Amino acid sequence: MIRVAVDALGGDRAPDEIVAGAAAAASTGIEPILFGLAGLDSHGLRLVETSQTIEMDAPPVEAVRAKPDSSLVRAIRAVADGEAEAVVSAGSTGATLAAALFGLRRLPGVLRPAIAVVIPARAGPTVLIDSGANADARPEHLLQFGHMGAVFAEEILGIADPEVRLLSIGEEDEKGNQLTLEAHELLRESDLRFGGNTESRRLLEGDTDVVVTDGFTGNVALKALEGTIKSLLDGIRGEIKSSARGRLGGLLIRPAARRVQRRLDPETYGGAYLLGLNGLVVIAHGSSSRVAIANAIRLAARGVEHRVVERLAERLPDRVVASARSTTPTAEK
């Protein structure tokens, strides 16, 4: 039985959708444990009562320090204390990062934790890392992100010897800002299967297995993708409903359209791993529905089954770990 601590009060649609999603994910192999206020309808799940909530717009570090009995902090503490194997939260990304750094700490040698998102690309899933944990980064951080993303692709997605590319403004080696140019050199000299640069327009094609970038660029690219996909699907639905001919055509393409929608829907994976910590953390979208939360909890359970944290600790190259310097990550609000 894999115990997953769930922040029942985190997210725009908490607690109702969070609790409903946790109940849907409960099975013979997964036990979601809710952390929330007394009196919360737990749908029969175990509830650990807390007295505080961290709002989505609260300053991350200050809120985590000021609210030690919040649902988020208590859920992460449960993982640190061995009372749960993973934690899921749809609350503030910055607060989740800050609470995880305080409560779980980084793996030995890891400079910065990073968010790994699975993009449902046409040729197969692609891991985008970092997608929001570090707005500012250095070249050596991106090198570690490449190693963490490669381990993730192997362990969770089952990709043997994954290819790693660097997100830039052009595929040529000389394209990019100073961070990209220096990171390109480090990745090229590493023992990763580095395929050079890639552009954001290729993210949905699945040309590579792992795409490395800093958290600011990755978050902008991810949200642009999500917004474009939503606008495109909404536009197609609107056109189909606008006329009798459109509705007839919609009936004919419905099976194919549903397959495309399922593949591109962010709720399919439900969340993203915060890699590089001494514990498994899954960050769900703030607007997650019960479907997304259920899938995020299942994603967390898969990470436990595949020993993602342990494998990262074992497989980060010795020379990268040895050269690590202690830094204090800046949590994104």
The CATH H-level homologous superfamily of the largest domain: Isopropylmalate Dehydrogenase
What is the approximate shape? globular
- The low-confidence runs, each spanning 5 or more residues with pLDDT under 50, are 322-333
Assigned CATH class of the largest domain: Alpha Beta
CATH topology of the largest domain: Isopropylmalate Dehydrogenase
Features:
alpha/beta; Isopropylmalate Dehydrogenase; 11-stranded mixed β-sheet; 43% helix; disordered C terminus
What does this 3D model show about the protein?
The chain folds into two domains: 1-111 and 276-310, 3-Layer(aba) Sandwich (Isopropylmalate Dehydrogenase), CATH 3.40.718; 114-267, Isopropylmalate Dehydrogenase (3-Layer(aba) Sandwich). Helix content is 43%, strand content 17%. It has helices at residues 16-25, 60-66, 71-80, 93-103, 139-155, 178-189, 215-241, 244-264, 290-305, 308-315, 318-322, and strands spanning 2-7, 30-37, 46-50, 86-89, 114-119, 126-129, 163-167, 193-198, 210-212, 271-275, 280-284. Strands 3-2-1-4-11-10-5-6-9-7-8 form an eleven-stranded mixed sheet, sandwiched between helices. Helix 1 (16-25) packs across helix 9 (290-305), helix 2 crosses helix 4 and helix 7 (215-241) runs antiparallel to helix 8 (244-264). Residues 322-333 have low confidence and may be disordered.
